[in-house]
């Protein structure tokens, strides 16, 4: 009997899987990678040797208005580790610089003060020489038009980012289920872009592309828009980190927004790539808090399971979802009881400029539900889960029993993905 630890909220669930049923465990190499030094030292070392860029303390000279784009409450970016090093270099290079930290909420809800303190620490949040601004993508009055994206969508960005004398960002790099990888250019789009811009970039045509998948940048139309946006916004410098299973920094990349990011992506690709182990039942998670706060985010972990689940098989998604569904449109899409084939046809018939909020997440979830039964082990209300055309279980053990009943056999093989957002599952099947 194998005992497997599954991240769940701020804790873990331990689950026993019979040896004769366990087909394999898909685990990122980040979980066993030995970092070369303490987190702060890793970040500072990267900043001392930036990739295709001058050091930050050189870039800030003569610049009055510095804007640092930082990740929001839905990302496990260790801003407490990254921000002090960046602030120190900014102040060293230009003591008179005015620093604004612009929180990249993308299409998410606004980050609260408590969440800022949790991310940055009380000392930084309370500093009088640093101004915090929370991006809200639906506030049209905050946005300015910069250009037209390759997709044809309008590129509207937060005025504070557009008016910066120097625009920089922090973030982290991990596999992303349709942008290929997180980090780098994503700080700008979707991070601090208008909701209208996000929807054009996340259109059904692009989401449906075979290149809009985990670990793919080349040919990815969503990535192409994002790179264009970051260039147009003049994103000048990034500090991106790679994290282990405990959300600790194991690598850092600093410098040019694209070149440093690509180098980080190459490392993550080597670290996170795993071969699919096809099974009738696949158990996945969203890596625990903060990425498993809602069903919306949990679709990411489901895509890892999708890549290794046999056609017609069952995905068991273990995700806290303490905040519920996380997207009203996502919930409404499925709660009306409309046939999933009809939902998908509606998405694919929607023009780029008519994309609606959360359509991309709904489209990916619909794609998964058309191929697999999904059972959620979660703290979200049972009624909510069932309304969204998924099944609910109180425990993993109960979910496996439900899967066995659905598959009409008790010996189906099980693949386990302890952290679904940390792996790039490679197979030869088309999504």
TrEMBL record:
<dbReference type="InterPro" id="IPR048068">
    <property type="entry name" value="LarA-like"/>
</dbReference>
<dbReference type="InterPro" id="IPR043166">
    <property type="entry name" value="LarA-like_C"/>
</dbReference>
<dbReference type="InterPro" id="IPR018657">
    <property type="entry name" value="LarA-like_N"/>
</dbReference>
<dbReference type="Pfam" id="PF09861">
    <property type="entry name" value="Lar_N"/>
</dbReference>
<dbReference type="InterPro" id="IPR047926">
    <property type="entry name" value="Ni_dep_LarA"/>
</dbReference>
<dbReference type="InterPro" id="IPR048520">
    <property type="entry name" value="LarA_C"/>
</dbReference>
<dbReference type="Pfam" id="PF21113">
    <property type="entry name" value="LarA_C"/>
</dbReference>
<protein>
    <submittedName>
        <fullName>Lactate racemization operon protein LarA</fullName>
    </submittedName>
</protein>
<feature type="domain" description="Lactate racemase C-terminal">
    <location>
        <begin position="274"/>
        <end position="425"/>
    </location>
</feature>
<feature type="domain" description="LarA-like N-terminal">
    <location>
        <begin position="8"/>
        <end position="215"/>
    </location>
</feature>
<dbReference type="GO" id="GO:0050043">
    <property type="term" value="F:lactate racemase activity"/>
</dbReference>
């Amino acid at each position: 009997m194998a005992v497997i630890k599954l991240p769940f909220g701020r804790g873990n669930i331990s689950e026993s899987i019979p040896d004769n049923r366990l087909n394999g465990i898909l685990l990122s190499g980040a979980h066993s990678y030995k970092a070369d030094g303490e987190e702060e030292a890793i970040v500072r070392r990267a900043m001392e040797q930036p990739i295709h860029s001058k050091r930050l303390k050189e870039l800030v000279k003569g610049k009055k208005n510095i804007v640092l784009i930082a990740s929001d409450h839905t990302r496990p970016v260790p801003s407490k580790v990254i921000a002090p090093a960046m602030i120190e270099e900014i102040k060293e290079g230009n003591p008179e610089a005015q620093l604004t930290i612009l929180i990249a909420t993308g299409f998410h809800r606004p980050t609260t003060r408590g969440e800022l303190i949790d991310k940055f620490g009380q000392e930084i949040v309370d500093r009088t020489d640093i101004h915090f601004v929370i991006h809200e993508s639906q506030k049209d009055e905050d946005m300015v038009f910069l250009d037209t994206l390759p997709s044809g969508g309008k590129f509207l960005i937060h005025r504070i980012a557009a008016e910066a004398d120097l625009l920089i960002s922090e973030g982290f790099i991990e596999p992303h289920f349709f942008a290929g990888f997180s980090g780098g250019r994503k700080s700008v789009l979707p991070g601090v872009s208008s909701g209208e811009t996000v929807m054009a970039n996340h259109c059904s045509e692009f989401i449906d592309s075979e290149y809009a998948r985990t670990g793919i940048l080349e040919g990815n139309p969503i990535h192409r828009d994002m790179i264009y946006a970051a260039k147009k916004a003049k994103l000048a410098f990034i500090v991106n980190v790679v994290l282990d299973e405990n959300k600790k920094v194991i690598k850092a990349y600093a410098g040019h927004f694209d070149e440093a990011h690509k180098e980080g992506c190459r490392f993550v690709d080597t670290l996170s790539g795993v071969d699919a182990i096809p099974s009738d039942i696949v158990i996945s998670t969203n890596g625990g808090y903060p990425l498993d706060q809602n069903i919306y985010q949990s679709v990411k972990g489901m895509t890892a399971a999708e890549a290794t689940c046999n056609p017609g098989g069952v995905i068991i998604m273990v995700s806290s979802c303490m905040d519920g569904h996380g997207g009203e449109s996502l919930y409404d899409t499925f709660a009306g009881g409309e046939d999933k084939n009809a939902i998908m046809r509606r998405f694919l018939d929607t023009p780029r400029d008519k994309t609606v909020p959360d359509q991309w997440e709904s489209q990916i979830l619909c794609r998964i539900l058309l191929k697999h039964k999904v059972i959620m082990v979660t703290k979200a209300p049972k009624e909510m889960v069932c309304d969204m055309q998924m099944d609910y279980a109180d425990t993993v053990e109960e979910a496996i029993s439900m899967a066995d009943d659905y598959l009409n056999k008790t010996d189906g093989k099980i693949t386990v993905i302890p952290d679904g957002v940390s792996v790039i599952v490679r197979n030869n099947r088309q999504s």
